[in-house]
Amino acid sequence: MRGLGKRLWLVAWRHRSSSGGGLSFAPVDAGKSLMRRALVLGLGLLVIGYAAGCGESQPADTAQPTPGAETAPAASTAPAGAQQAQPSGGSSITGTVTFAGKAPALPALTMEADPACVKMHSGKPAPNEMLVLGSGNTMGNIMVWVSDGLPAGKTWPAPETPVVLDQKGCTYEPHVMGIMVGQSYRILNSDGILHNIHTLPKINRSFNRAMPATLKETTTTFDKPENVFQIKCDVHPWMSAYIGVFTHPFYSVTGTDGKFAISGLEAGTYEITAWHERLGTQTASITVADKETKTQDFTFATPTR
């Protein structure tokens, strides 16, 4: 007890000296009564707690998973026992997104700043996902969603299955994704090197979370709907992904075939929005009858100067 009291007094004294005041302790004679030693011990523990609380602050999203541990998905906002988001209608809207004209030649991603990333691609340039085209200039990485016309007051519970973003080959996979409010967002680090996840929303809380080699997984959620926003890695500036947060399940992301499908709609008139990270958005109005499937295609082009 006596030696511990002395050490804790020293911790408290050094903390006072380094912080410029705020806490004051007089030297304690080791031969004083047990009560005084107990007082020093209690005050010393308080100082340690104070010093720990004055460390580096965490980002707004404060959940800190155990390094390398399997992180349990965050709880859904749906009531206990609720089913995953299942559209109840029988109507659908499908379509294909294409690029008009000659596609611009995009430079490959430059990863020379991190030799570990270059090695993952066997020294070859990594493709640029800003414009992904398939046969016939069909466009991948286009987010399409119902932006207006859904029944007022109707809600859909968030799915229990998480949306997964992986850091693989020093790129984000997938490049574009959608998620529902309250749905778990599971972020993996398959590369086993230092990355960080830095979201750039305008409505939801931003977070900037480091993921060193020892941290293989972390999770978070978004609590407000928001149109598509960027996610970046400050360690590797070429890494970029995009995510949209919705209160409903009526959204789709195109593959390289340019196709999207939004099903489970009730009969009605809907506004559909198609989004590309550089070419902006397009909207269309379409009416579907009960159990009807309608087609709505979109065409993007490089803006004329």
List keywords for this structure.
305 residues, alpha+beta, Immunoglobulin-like, 5-stranded mixed β-sheet, 3 helices, 14% helix, 32% strand, globular, disordered N terminus
Description:
With 305 residues, the protein is α+β, with helices and mostly antiparallel strands. It folds into 2 domains: 2-53, no CATH class; 91-301, Immunoglobulin-like (Sandwich). Helix content is 14%, strand content 32%. It has helices at residues 2-19, 34-53, 115-120; strands at 91-100, 143-148, 163-168, 171-173, 176-180, 185-189, 195-199, 208-211, 217-220, 226-232, 240-246, 251-253, 259-265, 268-276, 280-288, 293-295, 298-301. It has a 5-stranded mixed sheet, with no helix packed on it. Strands 1, 13, 16 and 17 form a 4-stranded mixed sheet that branches. A hairpin with a 3-residue loop joins strand 14 (268-276) and strand 15. Helix 1 crosses helix 2. The chain is globular, with a radius of gyration of 27 Å. The model is unreliable at 1-84 (pLDDT under 50).
Layout of helices and strands:
Elements: H1 2-19, H2 34-53, E1 91-100, H3 115-120, E2 143-148, E3 163-168, E4 171-173, E5 176-180, E6 185-189, E7 195-199, E8 208-211, E9 217-220, E10 226-232, E11 240-246, E12 251-253, E13 259-265, E14 268-276, E15 280-288, E16 293-295, E17 298-301
Parallel strand pairs: 1-16, 1-17, 3-6, 5-11
Antiparallel strand pairs: 1-13, 2-12, 2-14, 3-4, 6-9, 7-8, 7-10, 10-11, 14-15
Helix pairs in contact: 1-2
